[in-house]
Amino acid sequence: MNYLVFEGLDENDMKKPEVQRYLEAMQRELEKDPIVGAVTGLPDVVKKVRFEFFGADSSKLALPDNVNEIAQMLFLYEMSGGDPDDLFKFVTPEYDQVNLWVQMRNGDNMAVSSVVERGNRFLLEHAPPSGITARWAGLPYINIEWQHQMVSGMRSSLMASYIVVFLMMVFLFRSLRWGLVSMLPLTITVMAIYAFIGFIGKPYDMPVAILSSLTLGLSIDFAIHFIQRLRTIHKRTSDFRKSFDEIFQGAGRAISRNVLVIAIGFVPMLFSTLVPYITVGAFFLAIMVVSGLVTMLLLPALVRTFHKTLLPVKADDSETVPAAVEHARR
Amino acid sequence: MLNSKLILILLLALPMAIATTATGEDAAAIMEKSHLAYYYAADDGISEVTMRITSKRGKERTKEFVMLRLDEEEGGKQKYYTYFRKPSDISRLTFMVHKIPDGNDQRWIYVPSVDLVKPISADDKNSSFVGSHFSYEDVSGRHWSEDKHSLLPDSTIGDRAVFVIESIPVEKYKGFSRKLSYIDKENYLPLREEYYGKKDKLVRVFTAEKVEEIDGVTTMTARSMENLKKGGKTLIEFSSIEYNVGLDASLFTERFLKNPPRKYIK
Questions:
Q1: What's the CATH code of the domain at A284?
Q2: pLDDT of amino acid B266
Q3: Number of domains in chain B
Q4: Hey, which of A35, A100, A314, B179 has its CA 20 to 30 A from B14?
């Protein structure tokens, strides 16, 4: 259940006819959304009591024009044995705040967002009576707010990590060029996955946000491993063809096995009945396959094409790899 | 030595045994006397009433009304007439109850904004009285024969000696499962009542806030009811009390709901 809360400045503000009419208009507006079942609130109580008071006269099933009649209809409800607690689910006993109950057929975040948006648009286009303010409340609304905050938080932290990883690569390889090359597997992997998610229309949610950060770590690992080994070998051979032969024997085999083991290891999750598990399983599979392929195919291709600048033949130019990188690749 | 101890115990136990055998009747008699002292003082009465309702959020709202009461038979039928003064959006609204202890009460309301008198449902005596923490029954009284009473050891409330009476509804009742009444031994007014609900939890507490002598009648001029379960409290204060003014039964008819008797309601 979602609630649209209206607050007045003074006691009894909610009994004013213009406020009652505004609430009723908002109820009808929200009900236009096919996801919304019914919107109930204080105007319904007033109308129902009036209807009953006039002997079930359907012409009286409407809001009265004067504040005293509204107040007296509500008082009648309090007097006639109805549980006042029922009434106070819609309004505070001081009549300074009301609650519209927005029932929805579907509680998913997209649906809730669309209803919230519809309400907010109405608030903008039709200003509430003076002194009245509105805000949303309720668990589904809290969910969309939370999700929004978390996801955008994850998005910005992902960007920040991306930049930090790049700077670290530049620093560790002591080379802007190698720094750029090392970022390729993870850049392409994240882009491929986001493109796929966008293509199938899956919303960017929590599992996606968390897994994107994991991609960063997993993909950079392959790149470091490959590049560091390549440079070490090249320092010895001074010939990129010879170095290639050697690296595909050693590091290349290790990376391929790593990809296969992790990718296959996550396959059972695809058969789960829980959607987040399937997402995680599919994600890991995709991360491993894409970043593995980029490391094993695109990196060597690039190095081959730009071997003159990336792997200069003069052995003096290539310095020893810092111990930290050696360590990181393990 | 052993004998003297035994005699002492027997001597101590004897009054208790007598008390227990007598309780059943005594307790009911005390409750009857209390009911009459509290709800049927004099033959009729008029009073200005101020009701301060404090919600669980701690906000207070006030209702003011005039109340006329006429007893038709002591402990039996009564008629109440209520004329609302405040809040202003319900001023001139009137309300009437014909209390029928062994049947269903009758209630009418006059709604000034639409100038109509209508009878209203009186099925639930346990529902709130004008949005306060008092129920209709708290205001008009629950007949003592509806509960089984037993006398507990005497106690004191402040400096007043009281009977303590435990009442258990004869038929299952949603108002309470058990009630403790602390009744002043001198004037029989209930100084405190504790209402217990499910699992014997204390749900509501009634307190006599002020007792005064008016026209020779010991009258509770302020009383409160606190709801411990849901939160909130209502204080009712009575002022300008007059007894035996000679109210006529004809005042308690639908005609006078629309046109309040100006003689008594200014």
A1: 1.20.1640.10
A2: 78
A3: 1
A4: B179
Query: Is A142 part of a structural domain of the chain?
Result: no
Of A71, A79, A92, the CB nearest to B109: A79
End-of-domain residue from the set A90, A115, A137: A137
CA distance B48 to B214: 14
Nearest-CA distance B220 → chain A (Å): 24
Q: Does A67 touch chain B (CB under 8 A)?
A: yes
Q: Which chain A residues contact residue B127 at CB under 8 A? A: 81-84
Shortest Cα distance, chain A CAs vs residue B194, angstroms: 22
Residue A118 identity (one-letter amino acid) = R
B128 inside 8 A of chain A by CB: yes
Nearest CA in chain B to A81: B127
Q: Does residue B25 lie within any of the structural domains?
A: no
CB contact under 8 A, B59 and A71: no
Which tokens go with B66? Answer: 């005039």
Residue among A12, A72, A81 minimizing CB distance to B124: A81
Is the CB of B200 inside 8 Å of chain A's CB atoms? no
- On the question of pLDDT at A51 being above 70, the answer is yes
CB contact under 8 A, A81 and B59: no
What digits encode the pLDDT tens for the residues A260-309? 998 898 889 889 888 878 888 888 888 889 989 999 999 989 888 888 88
Check CB contact under 8 Å for A79 and B57. no
Q: Which helix (H) or strand (E) holds B27?
A: helix B2-39
Both A104 and A246 in a single domain? no
| Domain edge (last residue) among A115, A137, A159 | A137
Note whether residue B98 is domain-resident. yes
The answer to whether residue B208 scores a pLDDT higher than 80 is yes
Q: Is the pLDDT of residue B190 over 90?
A: yes
Rounded distance, CA A310 to CA A304, Å?
A: 9
Give the pLDDT confidence of A111-120 residue by residue, as tens digits: 888 888 899 9
Is A275 a domain residue? yes
Are residues A154 and A78 part of one domain?
Answer: no
Q: Does B113 touch chain A (CB under 8 A)?
A: yes
pLDDT average, residue stretch A25-29: 92
Q: Which of B185, B192, B150 is nearest to B168 (CA)?
A: B150
Chain B residues with CB under 8 Å of A59 CB are none
Mention every residue, 6+ apart, whose C-beta is less than 8 A from residue A221. A328, A329
Residue of B nearest to A11 (CA): B61
Q: What is the CATH number of the domain that holds B178?
A: 2.50.20.10
User: What range defines the domain where residue B143 resides?
Assistant: 34-258
Domain tally for chain A? 2
CB atoms A75 and B90 under 8 Å: yes
- Calculate the alpha carbon distances from B194 to A7, A224, B135, B176 in Å: 37, 77, 14, 9
Question: Nearest CA to A116 among A100, A130, A98, A92?
Answer: A100
Whether residues A164 and A288 share a domain: the answer is yes
Q: Is the pLDDT of residue B26 over 70?
A: yes
* Nearest by CB: A93 against B55, B89, B121: B55
Q: Which residue has the tokens 């519809």?
A: A118
Is B5 part of a structural domain of the chain?
no
Instruction: Give the 3-state secondary structure of B63-132.
Output: EEEEEEEEECCCCCCEEEEEEEEECHHHCCCEEEEEECCCCCCEEEEEECCCCEEEEECCCCCCCECCCC
According to the model, what pLDDT value does residue A318 have? 47
pLDDT value of position B20: 46
pLDDT tens column, A155-213: 788 889 899 999 999 999 999 999 999 998 889 988 888 888 888 887 777 777 777 88
CB-based contact B57 A68, cutoff 8 Å = no
User: What domain range includes position A207?
Assistant: 150-328
